Amino acid sequence: MPNNIQLCRSILFVPGSVQKRIDKAASIPADAIVFDLEDAVSPSEKIRARERVVDALKSSAFNSKQMIVRVNGISTPWFEGDIKAIVAAGGSAIMLPKCESAEDVLITKSFFNSADIPLFVIIETAKGVLAAPAISNALTEQDSVCFGHVDFAADMALNEANASEGVIYHSRCQVALAARAFGASPIDNVCLDIADEQAIREDTLAGLKLGYAGKLCIHPNQVNIVNAVYTPTHEEVDKAKAILAAWDVAQEEGSGVFTFQNKMIDLPVIRAQQNILMRYQAAQ
What we know:
TIM Barrel, 2 domains, single chain, 15% strand, 12 helices, alpha/beta
């Protein structure tokens, strides 16, 4: 069974303005690193941060990493300079903050110059959530849709950014549904807890159960926990192998449906088991 999955279980934000954090990022076991030119960088440091990030993208230290750069938003004076510099440097995906429409996707991709560059969009406003299906439909299978619940909470005038309840949870579900419906990869919101391992694990598990493929991280402490949650367990792998072996027998007998541990198994279940094995193999 071929495996062409590129994992994005953990996606760690790193400030583009802090050189020591850029240097440290190369040794952190996140599946992907996001050099942030937006929220983590003050206006006076925007240009210098861009230069630091371009230098990092050219460094051999990150050869084994999936690299992403969060550029400044379309409405800011830094957007065009950011995206042109990152595209010219090469070797990196682009992350677009505060995406609110399919037009935002098309504007961003117009700067790619036909290059095959993955795009990560962050939906983090009420307008963006309402447009999630149209945004997802404008993306390709190599692109991803992320949910930014903190900015969304602010946009909704909420006192707390709790991703497990209320309209935030509802929107968290909507973003995952829209991405999956149109073939993009859904990436879950950050967890604001950076020291409470149980809270991080529970929040990550909640996203996994909603259909997310990975999670945004804001601290290195979160990475190993997120990786573990999004990696199939040995028990899941053993069960998947047993189901697939039984499927082979059923196919030889000319049956498209069979029972396994008193549950009906058909093609959609088989595809899920194949996906478990591919994700596990990719994680190794």
